[in-house]
Structure formats: structure tokens, C-alpha cells
Design a protein that fits this description.
One of its GO terms (molecular function) is phosphatase activity. With 634 residues, the protein is of the alpha+beta class. It folds into three domains: 2-209, no CATH class; 270-401, no CATH class; 407-632, Phosphatase 2c, domain 1. It contains twelve helices and 22 strands. The protein has helices at 2-65, 122-132, 156-159, 204-254, 270-315, 319-335, 347-358, 364-406, 460-476, 483-497, 587-596, 603-614; strands at residues 71-76, 91-97, 100-108, 114-119, 135-139, 145-147, 168-174, 177-187, 193-202, 418-425, 433-439, 447-456, 503-512, 517-523, 529-533, 536-539, 559-562, 568-572, 580-581, 584-585, 619-620, 625-632. The strands form five sheets. The protein has a five-stranded antiparallel β-sheet. A five-stranded antiparallel β-sheet has the order 10-22-18-15-16. Strands 11-12-13-14-17 form a five-stranded antiparallel β-sheet. Helix 4 packs parallel to helix 5 (270-315) and helix 9 (460-476) packs antiparallel against helix 10. The longest helix is centred in the first third of the chain and has 64 residues, at 2-65. The chain is elongated and about 170 Å long. The model is unreliable at 73-88 and 342-346 (pLDDT under 50).
């Protein structure tokens, strides 16, 4: 079935999109986690550097105070004082000396001078490498390495590939090794860029482990998606199997096979109802067949009677003429089809024509009687056909009326925050009106959906389309973000099966009982009306849109309206304003005037007041007319 194929394809695409989105999200989270871990690691490495740098600087000051020979040892109040912190505190940092970077420590002296001592950072690099497990490398301002510990080993080759000292972190791959490189700019005491500090960490094993985990997770997600798709396909096949059998039986009945089995008669769902309707159709066809056979027997009896009467008429003629007429009659009877050979409804008429040809010489009175008999038989056949069509139409109207009555929603409990009631005035033909109201967040919730729609058509096709539209609204409204989005999605789904291009008009309003707010959208349906107190009724300005089920991706504008306390919202089908009173259409303004004359705003009171006029002898309705009234308790 095309419907099952469409549903399966949609769900498979949805699962595939969800799987791809999950894999992309998983990869994104993995990259984010790796970036967070790298940033935290780089921060920890920098803290370790500064801690060990302070320790080495303290040792350097102690050596200088003890008189040991260290590089750059001096006592002066010159440029070295730039390293002294506010308040003449000891300070340390990297300074560029010639083409080298050195660790310089300062110590304020009592006489106002500053003692500065410097040493190559080799020992500092070695201690930091041992403490962090990473390989620290010092570079110049262009990114060329100037100092690194002996532990750098083969990782030093990665430094040659880098230039510049922009802060950040990157991952480099060479051969089968993966190295994480973090870069921190190095500033001198004057704030000038003199080089950079790079942190090299071999993350080959960790990267491979992460890639393996990602592959396992992706494989698991794809496998789970495959299981979901397979399970859904099997379930959908099981669900649609009864419908496929019913459609096969329908095709067999259309081809004239009245012995076909009709499975699923005992089901209580829509499929069971359709099968029982087919059963009624088959029984009607069988009854028509019996009636046709009985009619053929009656025709043969009539032909026999006519033949006998013609023989009696021939007996009244003179002897020569009687003999000639009897010979012609015997020839006609010999050439006429036998009873077993007469299979069609027109055989009796053919026999009468043959008899008429044999008696052309008969008097005008006999020919006139023969024509009258043929006219009577034709009228009887036309009456029989008309009666059969009338019975079939009555059965169809009865089935449609039953379906339309079952579409009426049950009343709301008295303890809920709103009172809702609706009425349907059925026309001479099925007009496709249906209404519904239901909670979006469970019974007794805060959001109540009110739906009024009409199918512009008649017969079982319009009835089934109305059932589909009602089921789609109930299914999609709790998931949709707004009434306009819900009606747009319903329109797309109805478009697939609306081969007869029947128009579906609809109004969908969502009432927030706590906020006392209405959000509404409509598609070619009449706008709703609002009653704030007896005597005051007005038409709400809700922008319209084309009918549902005729074009894809329908855009429906929405409107948000505040509802006063204990106000009554009235939604109507197009049959209400189209009702003519004394030959003049009621219209929306006339409906507002009629509602304003109600003695109260209770839904039952309003409906009784309006139906007294619409159902009166002066009202003429072209089709169905429906009203739905929702009133807030507080």
C-alpha cells in the first residue's frame, strides 16, 4: 500500500536523521571534551611551571646572597628594577639576554638598589618535564626553539613544523604518532613579547582509544537504528494486513465476485467498520442479483402470456390468414432463444419484437396493445432500477450519519476549568462538518484545544476524510508548537490521499486556562466569536488562509487574544453564516446579533438560543451547520 510505504519511508528517514544527528552530536561532544581536557591540562602545566620557576628563583637568590658565582649577578638600581613587584617585593621571570632566554630573579636591597641574578632555564625545563610528564620547549618570538629538556627526544621534530607563538592548543600527527601542542606567549618585565612556551604531550594512545570508542558508539547507534527500523516495518506490516485484506475483498466485489471472504468483521476499529460496510454492500449486490433473476422469470412468464394471447387473437382471424399467422408464429417460436439460453435482461424485449414482426398484418388494435405492453415493461424496469438506487443511497446516508455522530467528542467533566458543548444540524446531504475538543496536557490540564472543521463534499469519501482530519489533529496538536504549525502538518498529510481535491476548512484554537489566553489559526473557516457578557458579542479578527489538503507547506498566520474571565468562545462551521432566514443569509454580523440576544453565556443556553432560530421553519440550510461553545469557569 502506498500509505504504508509513505509511513515506513518517513519513519526510516526520521530514524536515519536522528542517528546522524546523534553521531554528529557525539563527535561534537567528544571534541568539546577533548578541548576542555586540553585546556585544563595546559592550565595545570602553566601552574606547575610558575611554581617550579618560583622555587628555582628562590634558590638563585639564595646562591647570589651566599656569594656564589651566577650569571647576571649585579647590584644596581637600573633596568633590572623592572622585575621588582609593587612594594619592592622579590620577582622573577624570563628575560631575553642576547639571543638567549634566561630565568632572572630580583631582590630589593636595603639601600634602595636591586640585586638581579640570572641562570639558563635548562634546570627549570628538566624539573618541569619531570613534574608534569610533558615536554616544555622555549622558543623565540618567531617560534624557533631556543631551549628544551633532554626528554624532548623525537618529539623535538614536531617543534620545527611550528612558527609563531599565538596562544592556543593543537594536535599534530606524523606517521603513527599524535602529539598535543599547547602554546603560551612569554613576555619580559616590560610586557614585550620575547618568545613562547610550548607544551608537547604524546597523546597517541589516548587518541586511538577515543577513536575506538567513537567507532564502537557509532556502530552501536547504527545497529540500534537498524533494529528499530526492522521492528517498525514488521509492526506496520502487521497493522496494515487487515486493511490490505479488506481492500483486496473490495476489489473482488467490484469485479463481481460475491463469494469473497470479508475478514475483520469482528474488529471494533475503523477497519472493522469499513469491512462491515463492505458486507452490507455485498448483501445488497446479492439481493439485487436475486431480484434480477426473479424479474427475468417474470419477463418469461409475461412473454408466454403474450404469446398465448397472440395465438388467441390469431384464432379470431379468417382461416387463410389464421393459417398464415400460425405458420409465422411457429417460425418465430422456433427461432426464438430457449429459456436456458436467455441470460440478459433484454431477452424478453427481443422476443416481443420477434413476435411483433410475425404479426405485421395484424390489426392496428393488436399493434397498439403490444406497444402499450412494452411501455409498461420498460416503466417497471425503470422503477425497479430507481428503487435499487434509492435503497443504496439510503444505506450510504445511514452509514455516513452514524460516522458523523461518532465524531462528536464526549463532554468535559464538571470539575475542569472550562465548560464546552457543541451541536450539529445535519443537512439533506452529508456536508462533512465535525468538531472536537481535548486536553493537550492530560485530562484537567491547563491547555484546551478547540477544533471546528468541514469537508466540502458528500458521501463516504468526505466522511472518511473527516475522520482522518480529526485523528490527525488529535495526534499532532500535543506535539506541535502552535495551532498554525499543527494545521500546516495536517494539510500536508491530507494532501497525500485527497485524490478528489476536496476542500477542508478548519479552525484550531488553544486556550490557556491559567493565562486566559487564546492562540488561534484558521484555514478558510469562519472566524470565531467572543461573548464577554449577555448582550455583547463580537467577531474576533483571526487572519485566514487557504483550505487544507490542497497545497503543500501551507502557511497559516496566528493570533493571540486575551480572554476575559467567564467569557464564551463560539466556533462555527460555514453552514451557520450561510443559513438563510426568510431568504437572507445570516452572515457573521447576523450571528453576532443572534448570540447577543442569548439570556446567558452558559454553553447549553447559548446553543439552545441559536438552534431555536437555525432549526426553525424560516431557516433554510444548504448543508450541515455546527456550533461549538467553550466558556472559562473563572
Amino acid at each position: 500500500m502506498r500509505l504504508r510505504l509513505h509511513i515506513t519511508t518517513s519513519v526510516v528517514l526520521l530514524i536515519a536523521v536522528a542517528t546522524v544527528a546523534g553521531l554528529v552530536g557525539m563527535a561534537t561532544r567528544g571534541r568539546q571534551e577533548q578541548a576542555a581536557v586540553g585546556a585544563a591540562t595546559l592550565l595545570a602545566q602553566e601552574r606547575a611551571w610558575h611554581a617550579i620557576q618560583a622555587s628555582v628563583a628562590d634558590a638563585l637568590r639564595s646562591a647570589a646572597r651566599a656569594g656564589q658565582a651566577v650569571e647576571l649577578l649585579e647590584q644596581r638600581a637600573g633596568p633590572a628594577t623592572r622585575l621588582a613587584l609593587a612594594g619592592q617585593q622579590p620577582a622573577e621571570g624570563l628575560e631575553r639576554v642576547g639571543d638567549r632566554l634566561m630565568l632572572v630573579a630580583t631582590q630589593p636591597l636595603p639601600g634602595g638598589g636591586v640585586m638581579a641574578a640570572g641562570v639558563a632555564p635548562t634546570s627549570l625545563l628538566r624539573q618541569v618535564a619531570a613534574a608534569t610528564g610533558a615536554v616544555p620547549v622555549l622558543t623565540d618570538a618567531e617560534g624557533r626553539p631556543v631551549a628544551m629538556p633532554e626528554a624532548a627526544g623525537p618529539l623535538a621534530a614536531f617543534i620545527e613544523r611550528l612558527r609563531g607563538v599565538e596562544p592556543g592548543r593543537m594536535v599534530l600527527a606524523a606517521g603513527d604518532r599524535v602529539v598535543s601542542v599547547g602554546t603560551v606567549p612569554v613576555l619580559d618585565s616590560a610586557g614585550q613579547l620575547i618568545g613562547g612556551r610550548r607544551w608537547l604531550v604524546d597523546v597517541t594512545e589516548r587518541t586511538w582509544t577515543q577513536d575506538r570508542d567513537d567507532l564502537l558508539a557509532a556502530g552501536g547507534a547504527i545497529g540500534l537504528s537498524g533494529l528499530l527500523i526492522t521492528g517498525f516495518t514488521l509492526w506496520l506490516r502487521r497493522v496494515f494486513r487487515p486493511l490490505e485484506l479488506a481492500l483486496a475483498a473490495q476489489r473482488a466485489l467490484a469485479e463481481g465476485d460475491l463469494t469473497v471472504e470479508l475478514p475483520g468483521q469482528e474488529r471494533e476499529d475503523e477497519i472493522g467498520g469499513a469491512v462491515r460496510a463492505l458486507l452490507v454492500f455485498r448483501q445488497g449486490r446479492i439481493a439485487l442479483g436475486r431480484r434480477a433473476r426473479a424479474d427475468r422469470r417474470q419477463q418469461r412468464i409475461r412473454l408466454g402470456f403474450i404469446e398465448a394471447q397472440l395465438g388467441n387473437l390469431a384464432a379470431t382471424l379468417d382461416a387463410p390468414e389464421r393459417a398464415a399467422m400460425e405458420r409465422d408464429l411457429q417460425q418465430v417460436l422456433a427461432s426464438a432463444p430457449k429459456d436456458g439460453e436467455r441470460g440478459g435482461e433484454g431477452d424478453g424485449a427481443g422476443g416481443m419484437d420477434a413476435l411483433a414482426m410475425a404479426f405485421r398484418a395484424m390489426a392496428e388494435r393488436v399493434r397498439s396493445q403490444h406497444r402499450k405492453l412494452r411501455g409498461l415493461i420498460a416503466e417497471q424496469g425503470d422503477a425497479l432500477a430507481a428503487k435499487t438506487r434509492m435503497e443504496a443511497l439510503e444505506q450510504e446516508l445511514s452509514a455516513v450519519a452514524t460516522m458523523q455522530a461518532r465524531l462528536a467528542p464526549p463532554p468535559l467533566p464538571a470539575e475542569t476549568g472550562a465548560a464546552v458543548a457543541g451541536r450539529l444540524l445535519q443537512g439533506a446531504q452529508f456536508g462533512g462538518d465535525f468538531q472536537d475538543f481535548f486536553w493537550l496536557d492530560g485530562p484537567g490540564g491547563r491547555r484546551l484545544a478547540v477544533f471546528m472543521a468541514s469537508v466540502r463534499g458528500s458521501g463516504l469519501g468526505a466522511a472518511f476524510l473527516a475522520i482522518s482530519a480529526r485523528a490527525l489533529v488529535r495526534s499532532l496538536a500535543p506535539q506541535a508548537a502552535s495551532p498554525g504549525e499543527c494545521l500546516s502538518r495536517v494539510s500536508d498529510l491530507l494532501l497525500r490521499d485527497n485524490d478528489q481535491r476536496m476542500e477542508i476548512t478548519g479552525f484550531l484554537g488553544i486556550i490557556d486556562l491559567r493565562a486566559q489566553v487564546l492562540v488561534a489559526a484558521r484555514a478558510a473557516a469562519p472566524p470565531p466569536l467572543l461573548l464577554t457578557q449577555p448582550g455583547e458579542a463580537r467577531v474576533l479578527e483571526v487572519p485566514g488562509a487557504p483550505p487544507l489538503g490542497l497545497q503543500p507547506r501551507l502557511k497559516l498566520p496566528e493570533v493571540t487574544i486575551e480572554l476575559p474571565a467567564r467569557a464564551a468562545l463560539v466556533a462555527v462551521s460555514r453552514g451557520v453564516p450561510e443559513t438563510a432566514l426568510r431568504g437572507v443569509p445570516l452572515g457573521l454580523d447576523g450571528l453576532a446579533t443572534l448570540l447577543a440576544g442569548s439570556p446567558g453565556l452558559d454553553p447549553e443556553v447559548l446553543l439552545a438560543h441559536v438552534l431555536e432560530t437555525l432549526g426553525g421553519p424560516e431557516a433554510a440550510r444548504p448543508g450541515d451547520a455546527s456550533l461549538l461553545v467553550a466558556r472559562l469557569h473563572a
